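The instructor's notes for this session suggest beginning with a concrete chain rather than abstract definitions. Hand out the sequence below and ask the class to guess, before any prediction is shown, which regions might be ordered.
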Amino acid sequence: MSKRIYNFSAGPACLPEPVLKQAQKDLWDIMGSGIGILEHSHRGKVFDRITAETEASCRAITNIPDDYAVFWMQGGATSQCYFVPANFLTPDRTADYFETGKWAQDSIKEVPLYGKLNVCGSSKDKNFSYIPTGSQVSYSDNPAYVQFTANNTIMGTEFQTEPDAPGDAFLVSDASSNIFSRPIDVTKFGLIYAGAQKNLGPSGITLLIARKDLIEKPVRELPQMMQFGNHAKKEGRFNTPNTFGVYLMGEVFKWILAEGGLDAMRDRNEAKAAVLYDFLDAQDFFIPHAEKASRSTMNITFKCPTPELDAAFIEGAEKKGLDGLTGHRQIQGMRASMYNAFPKAGAEALVAHMKDFAREHAAAAKA
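After discussion, reveal the predicted structure:
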């Protein structure tokens, strides 16, 4: 069997090895049914059980109360960019959005199709290297809701805590790249959505956690498939879901619980990130992108002194079994994505390569 390497990909990303090994078995025969998970009907008894267990495990992870629905939809989080204002925003109301990177901008672009937009805080002035706080935030009068991207995968920034929504507005969070990486109180939110391919499972499925009263009926006439309430009432089976995605999310949820829950995830993620951040702060060769107060534990972005050195660094990393470090084209450089399942040893191996590379190329960088 081939040796697995360290996968720093931003997504689809590293999955827990126990989950992968269980999936190998369940692809052939799940629950002694004589049929693999990919072949089971989404209306059959086996998948009834998978659906129930996946929801129950998700609720157990962070004590999701009964007045919140837990369900899933096909596609990634990009579809939610327009589902959210379509379901929640009337033409006469305003929605407030934080502009903290590309994925936030993708959501912002869709809002004027349905209602009024207010960008309540933006870090565009410094290439999205920080999270707006305090006087940098200006809410509109009586917004319908406030949306923010909890972790900015491309830029390596993260909200350290959720923003405060003014008045009766509820919070909407795109939590795709830090969902269940640390404790979260879902009752502070009206809606949380997360593409699964970073911390929860495979691509092609999105987890949603929503206040039931908010999704009971959309604010306008919408196609049946665009109504949150329809998907929630049918347990994520309004149409044929990504059955393997639901199954694998359920296995990841069970793994999180077995590992000690969200407190354990926070501790392991902070320890991994510290390995890299402590090194970055103690040297002068590599250049971090995110400001210290806004740093992400999931995605760590940095550059060498020149683009040519960036390319050489990535080539050398791949030879050492450190894969997926190429930064997004928007900021280039390097990006080390270390989600829940990523091992601390991988962070240590990356720092070892960084030390070697900096020693070897220090003179070239100063020339």
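Then share the key points. The mean pLDDT is 96. The CA atoms of residues 211 and 285 lie 47 Å apart.
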